[in-house]
Write a structure and sequence with these properties.
Blueprint (H helix, E strand, L loop, with lengths): L15 E11 L8 E5 L1 H6 L10 E16 L2 E17 L6 E13 L2 E3 L13 E6 L5 E5 L15 E9 L11 E12 L1
Antiparallel strand pairs: 1-10, 2-3, 3-4, 4-5, 5-9, 6-10, 7-8, 7-10
Length: about 190
């Protein structure tokens, strides 16, 4: 695998290709059963919730895991290992209005390809990506595209941890029906 120093790499000779990643995972209903949990006042304040008392907040959480492979044409260009999506439903303690706290974490590994570096390189920074939450029949109930937090992959990355957070305050009714998720990435990739 060829690697390049990101501070001095000459991108003019890089081979530009469009890459895509689509990872689909459907979890059996038994695995997606919500887990009840309590969130202490300290943790609640880290989530940006107003803390009224020392009493813990009650929440429900679901997690699913998957592996992903990134391709440029038919060539594998990277992997997503130990990817997890966790959705936690809780309510604002002052108003009682429910909201969702969604996390997406994974280890990214480059297999000789990288995403664009942005800035003065003339390349787009990263690649747009999103999560698509599906019901039991495979229909999309909710999606999120991570604005300002594009998918990135750099030369030499070997299990580089990446983490994305979403707080959803408007569309929360899909939590109980959630049965699967897709992660989609599409955009330009460059050889290392």
């Amino acid at each position: 695998m060829a690697t390049a120093d990101t501070s001095t790499a000459d991108t003019s000779a890089s081979e530009l290709m469009t890459g895509s990643l689509e990872v689909s995972a459907t979890i059996e209903t038994a695995d997606m059963a919500p887990h009840d949990l309590e969130i202490g006042a300290d943790s609640a304040s880290l989530l940006g919730l107003p803390v009224l008392t020392d009493a813990p907040l009650v929440a429900q959480s679901k997690t699913m895991s998957f592996q992903g492979k990134l391709f440029v044409g038919s060539t594998q260009s990277g992997t997503l290992d130990e990817a997890t999506v966790t959705v936690t439903r809780m309510a604002n303690p002052q108003t009682g209005v429910p909201f969702l706290f969604i996390t997406f974490g994974y280890f990214a590994t480059s297999l000789g390809w990288r995403t664009g570096r942005g800035g003065s390189s003339g390349e787009p920074l990263g690649m747009p990506h999103g999560l698509y939450f599906n019901n039991q029949a495979g229909g999309t109930m909710y999606s999120w595209g991570f604005p300002y937090d594009d998918f990135r992959l750099e030369c030499g990355w070997n299990r580089q941890y990446r983490y994305h957070v979403i707080r959803e305050y408007n569309f929360v009714s899909w939590f109980d029906l959630w049965a699967g998720v897709q992660h989609r990435v599409h955009g330009a990739m460059y050889r290392c």
